[in-house]
Amino acid sequence: MELTYLRNNKDKYIHVFSCCIPVKGHERGAIYDIQREEIELVPNTMIDFIEYIKNRKVSSVLEEFELDKMAGKYLDFLEKNEFVFYSNTVSFPELSAKSINEDTSVIQFMTITLSEFISNNLDRIISNINDLGVKRLHVHITDQDCMGAIHELLHLLEHSRVTNVSFSMPYQKIDKKLYNNNRLKALYLFNAPKEKVEANNEVTNFFITVSDARMFLPKFNINTVDVNSTAYNIAKNYNLSIYKTVFVDELGKIKFNISDKTSYGNITDSFEEITTGTIKKLSMIWDIKKEDIAPCNICEFRYCCTVTHIPFKTDDGYAVSCNYNPHTAELN
Ligand code: SF4
Predict the structure, then answer these.
(1) Which residues are within 8 A (CB) of 269 and not within 5 positions of it... i.e. 6 or more apart?
(2) Residue 13's domain spans which residues?
(3) Is the pLDDT of residue 80 over 60?
(4) How far is ligand 1, taken at its centre, from the CA of residue 304, in Å?
């Protein structure tokens, strides 16, 4: 422990930055830094330690843990990572758990599979995407030569409310002119000869070796977490994975994810049909929070996980079948 520094602050109080959220899991904990958009996986004992020392005087903590080397290491870690700070003020207000989500979108995230049917109905679909207020749009394409189609789609989205567009497509030569489009954020090239990540202006290219058949299967990995204040706020009040999120298949059917057997409507339906029918049905499970789903309720990722598992009813609540096991902190 940096004892000298701590002793110099001995009359101050220990505070946890309000943008740093300690979350206890079953096997391990996590600290979400929703300002830096980072997550630190830590032992649960550190989460307990944070709870125990917060708002206490440095001198009292130093005295109590004088002979405890682990406590010293924890305090050092928390301070170096800027999770805690010292102040003469006794207490600071914590982040409100209530929703302050001011987003007016009906649907925020949409993944759509390009097909002949979708292409033939593009005007109606783009109009619906716009009216629904979609912010993030991902388009999946299976055409081996799709640069023309991407340019056309980006052109059609020019006056839309979509601010973040990404595409997935088979490995192919990329037209560099795409990098000048400020809506385009990512290109995923599947069936690539090797994995790599490339940044070009604002566009990140992800070269992935898997085939597209596995791309949209709901599967947890550390890239499926979304650590930021908006996501945290949604997760505290709704199910972050499915809230205002849809998957549109090649026939235009609106579902929660690629494996979903239910069609809640069609993206070529009228805007009124979608809002009064489709959205009504989808939203019935938006507020089943991860806190109410097993095993998410004991998972350290429950306030940042975006894997689109659809909760199903059990005798005593809701459950999902996830490839991450929070009991053991292992991926299957
Ligand atoms: S258990 Fe739940 S919260 Fe944890 S990774 Fe799986 S789906 Fe996400």
Answers:
(1) 128, 277, 278
(2) 3-87
(3) yes
(4) 9
